[in-house]
Write a structure and sequence with these properties.
Layout lengths: L1 H8 L17 H12 L8 E6 L3 H14 L8 H18 L10 E6 L4 E5 L4 H12 L7 E5 L7 H13 L16 E3 L22 E3 L6 E4 L12 H21 L10 H14 L4 E4 L7 H14 L3 H5 L3 E4 L3 H7 L11 E4 L16 H7 L1 H9 L12 H7 L1 H9 L4 E5 L1 H11 L16 E8 L2 E8 L1
Parallel strand pairs: 1-2, 4-11, 9-10, 9-11
Antiparallel strand pairs: 2-3, 4-12, 5-6, 7-8, 12-13
Helix pairs in contact: 3-4, 5-15, 7-8, 12-13
Organism: Bigelowiella natans (Pedinomonas minutissima)
Keywords: ATP-binding, Nucleotide-binding
Pfam family, one: 6PF2K
């Protein structure tokens, strides 16, 4: 029985939600389900979800969609199929009883495509997230387009600066001198392991550097007199800096016996000098400076703009364009913007920024295998759950994308997402129902539009190379 299989599946500690899809239109059948769930070895929470539709226009539209796409009606005349479907529904209506409070069940009732939502006994993060998702779903037919941002130019000085700043994240986050330098970042090409070795889609994915950006849109730049190419830090230098940080932490703990107001800034400035000497990092100032898209990237944006103008989905409705906060993603998104169309929406989401690979940022797989063998082995064992030192895992990435997923589900106009390999891997896997553990190996090529369109049994896709 499907219900027994669902309960058995939930006995695994990592399995959290199972959906038992059946009519369950009578109180008696729902009681059987409650009794079966209550007898489970593992304590399980049961929620009934009921969809109610009283809008005749919506009903007729759903009937047509059903008979045109369901294998039950394949080969039948449309008129005969509609009559057969309505007869089936009429038989269910004879015994149908809505879920009532007297049954003692938790439930979610969605009426007329979330025009009205009623809940009872809904507690906990998972149950509330289910409610949020159901309230965002609709039966619109808009496409969702996934696209990797154009590649940016590489500068060796940015690699050095990135490595140094990433090393600082390994220090005590509470230390005052860190605050001026930990500014968040941009990955100019792709994300750590996720875009290297077996996952690389183009030569540009074999390198990965970080542009240091503030949320205000300003980017730290090296003072002109110090714009000299510096060699990247070795693992030994990073380890030496970490040993230095232990001394710093010890001094900091001793200093913390004084009130913060009495600590002054002289020690902070001295520590900055000490760190800079050990890391060989030039002084950083703040000014507006965006990384430039490569010549090939600019040509891609031109082709993309020309192609978009020919598409029906772009002509009929103004698209909602979502990008990461990285400059090259924002520049790529200009291909979808019409200066004469004030309805086109553009939103920048930090959730769409590239996977943070921590101290491994910018390293190639072979380098990590050689210099960080223990981390390499952990990554090989579980590429989805593995969290990069000082960074995040693909699972962390999926969590930060959850709010964006609700926005994508809610939006009724065409949606364009311009982002990066790791985030697009996660979004694509969500819509295509790909198991989460396979997310790191999903292939999404550069200069390729992935067009997802909803249909009765999920999402179908079309890939267009630009």
């Amino acid at each position: 029985m499907a219900l027994d299989e669902a309960i058995q599946w939930l006995q695994h500690p990592e399995h959290q939600v199972a959906v038992f899809d059946a009519t369950n239109t009578t109180p008696r059948r729902r009681q059987i389900i409650r009794d079966t769930v209550n007898n489970s070895k593992r304590k399980l929470n049961l929620i009934f979800m009921e969809s109610i539709c009283t809008n005749q226009k919506i009903l007729e539209s759903n009937y047509l969609t059903k008979v045109r796409n369901s294998p039950d009606f394949k080969g039948m005349d449309e008129k005969d199929a509609l009559e057969d479907l309505k007869n089936r529904i009429a038989r269910y209506q004879l015994v149908y009883r809505t879920v009532g409070d007297d049954e003692g069940s938790c439930y979610i009732k969605i009426q007329d495509l979330a025009d009205k939502v009623t809940v009872k006994g809904i507690y906990g993060s998972i149950a509330l997230r289910i409610v949020n998702l159901l309230m965002c779903c609709h039966n619109g037919n808009r496409p969702i387009i996934l696209l990797r941002a154009a590649a940016a130019e590489i500068k060796e000085i940015e690699h050095t600066r990135k490595t140094a700043l990433k090393t600082w994240t390994a220090l005590d986050d509470s230390m005052d001198y860190i605050g001026d330098y930990m500014l968040g970042g941009e990955d100019d090409l792709a994300a750590g392991f996720g875009a290297l070795g077996p996952y690389a889609e183009s030569p540009s994915d074999e390198k990965s550097f970080r542009e240091i950006t503030r949320s205000t849109g300003t980017t730290p730049t090296i003072e002109e007199e110090q714009q000299t190419a510096l060699p990247p830090l070795s693992i030994e230098e990073i380890c030496r800096t970490r040993r230095l940080s232990e001394t710093v932490r010890s001094s900091s703990r001793e200093a913390n016996v004084l009130p913060r107001s009495r600590r002054g800034s002289s020690s902070t400035a001295s520590m900055r000098v000490l760190l800079r000497q050990n890391l060989r990092v030039p002084t950083i100032t703040h000014s507006t400076s965006y990384s430039k898209v490569t010549k090939d990237g600019r040509e891609f944006i031109k082709r993309l703009k020309a192609y978009t103008k020919t598409q029906d989905w772009a002509k009929k409705d103004s698209a909602a364009v979502f990008t990461s906060t990285l400059p090259r993603a924002i520049e790529t998104a200009t291909a979808f913007l019409d200066p004469n169309d004030s309805e086109t929406q553009t939103q920048q989401w930090s959730a769409l920024n590239v996977l943070d690979t921590g101290i491994c940022h910018g390293m190639q797989v072979e380098g990590i295998k050689k210099e960080l063998p223990e981390e390499y082995e952990k990554w090989q064992r579980d590429k989805f759950r593995y969290r990069f030192p000082g960074g995040e895992s693909y699972m962390d990435l999926c969590h930060r994308l959850s709010t964006l997923v609700l926005e994508l589900e809610r939006t009724k106009r065409p949606v364009v997402v311009v982002s990066h390999l790791s985030t697009l891997q996660a979004l694509y896997s969500y819509f295509r129902a790909i198991p989460v553990r396979k997310i790191p190996s999903v292939k999404i090529k550069s200069h390729t539009m992935v067009i997802l369109s909803p249909h009765q049994y999920g999402w179908k896709e079309k890939r267009i190379e630009i």
